[in-house]
Structure formats: structure tokens, C-alpha cells
């Protein structure tokens, strides 16, 4: 891979690694992992989310998510309830302690990244994500002979 597209892929991967490292340092004080933080951020809207949606957001397979949510529930950060609209589904929610933890960590993270990331960068990243989500997937590469 070369050219601008290859450069973008490498730069995004490097940026993700650097942000994850900073995030992990902030989360260490709360005894949270990056996937655990992803759960808290999704559930912070207070709506409750089906476990399949939580797994997709956290980039985890369902079995790994179950173990993670079990640990978060044990730490009194989340709880699960049967979805009243579809009793086959389970929805996850933040506890009061989970909401307080998420808000505190979000503020700590914002303060940590404030000096490193210009405000307009978030807008550019949001634009890039929207473009990537709406773009047609690339055709599979033909096998080389």
C-alpha cells in the first residue's frame, strides 16, 4: 500500500495507539480497561442498549463482552434488565456509580487530551468516519498469480 491512502491508514493506526495509551493511563486510576470504558461511554446516554449493540460498539465478540459486563456489574458500574419490548433481549444500563465514574473519567480524559488535540480535529475525524461509513466497500482484491 502506498500513496495518500496508505499514509492515512498508518496515521490513523498510530493516532489510535497513542490515544489508547493516554486513555489507559487515565483509566488505570479507576481500575477500568479500554473496552470497559467503551461500555460506559455507550451507556452514558441513559437509554440502555441491547448487548449485541454494546458488543458492536466495544469491538468485542459476545462471549468476551459477557465476561466484561459481568465484571462491570460486579463493580457496580452497570446492570442488565430484560428488554420489555422483546423479552428475549437483555439491555445494559449504567448504575449511579457507573454514571459518576463515566463523567469523572470523561472529564479527566478531556483535560488530558485538551492540550494535545485541537478542537477542530474532532470535527475532521467525525467527517472522515461519516464518509467511510457511507462509502461503498472496496471490491475484494483479485488473487495474484
- Indicate the low-confidence ranges by residue numbers: none
- Spatial extent as radius of gyration: 18 Å
Assigned CATH architecture: Orthogonal Bundle
The named CATH superfamily:
Winged helix-like DNA-binding domain superfamily/Winged helix DNA-binding domain
The CATH topology is Arc Repressor Mutant, subunit A
Widest beta sheet: strand line-up: 1-3-2
Describe this structure in words.
This protein is mainly alpha-helical. The chain has a single domain, classed as Arc Repressor Mutant, subunit A, CATH 1.10.10.10. It contains six helices and three strands. It has a three-stranded antiparallel beta sheet. Helix 1 crosses helix 5 and helix 2 crosses helix 3. Pfam families: MarR_2 (PF12802). Keywords: DNA-binding, Transcription, Transcription regulation. GO terms for molecular function: DNA binding; DNA-binding transcription factor activity. This is HTH marR-type domain-containing protein. InterPro entries: HTH_MarR-typ, MarR/SlyA-like, WH-like_DNA-bd_sf, WH_DNA-bd_sf.
Keywords, separated by commas or semicolons:
145 residues, mainly alpha, Arc Repressor Mutant, subunit A, three-stranded antiparallel sheet, 3 strands, globular, transcription, DNA-binding, HTH marR-type domain-containing protein, DNA-binding transcription factor activity, transcription regulation
Write the layout of secondary structure elements.
Blueprint: H1 3-28, H2 34-43, E1 49-50, H3 51-58, H4 62-74, E2 78-83, E3 86-94, H5 96-114, H6 119-134
Antiparallel strand pairs: 1-3, 2-3
Amino acid at each position: 500500500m502506498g500513496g495518500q491512502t496508505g499514509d492515512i491508514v498508518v496515521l490513523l493506526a498510530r493516532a489510535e495507539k497513542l490515544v489508547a495509551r493516554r486513555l489507559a493511563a487515565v483509566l488505570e486510576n479507576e481500575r477500568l480497561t479500554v473496552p470497559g470504558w467503551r461500555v460506559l461511554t455507550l451507556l452514558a446516554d441513559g437509554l440502555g442498549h441491547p448487548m449485541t449493540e454494546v458488543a458492536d460498539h466495544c469491538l468485542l465478540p459476545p462471549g468476551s463482552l459477557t465476561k466484561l459486563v459481568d465484571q462491570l456489574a460486579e463493580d457496580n458500574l452497570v446492570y442488565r434488565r430484560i428488554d420489555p419490548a422483546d423479552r428475549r433481549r437483555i439491555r445494559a444500563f449504567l448504575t449511579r456509580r457507573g454514571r459518576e465514574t463515566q463523567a469523572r473519567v470523561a472529564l479527566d480524559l478531556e483535560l488530558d487530551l485538551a492540550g494535545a488535540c485541537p478542537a477542530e480535529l474532532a470535527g475532521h475525524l467525525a467527517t472522515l468516519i461519516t464518509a467511510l461509513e457511507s462509502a461503498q466497500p472496496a471490491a475484494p482484491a483479485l488473487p495474484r498469480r
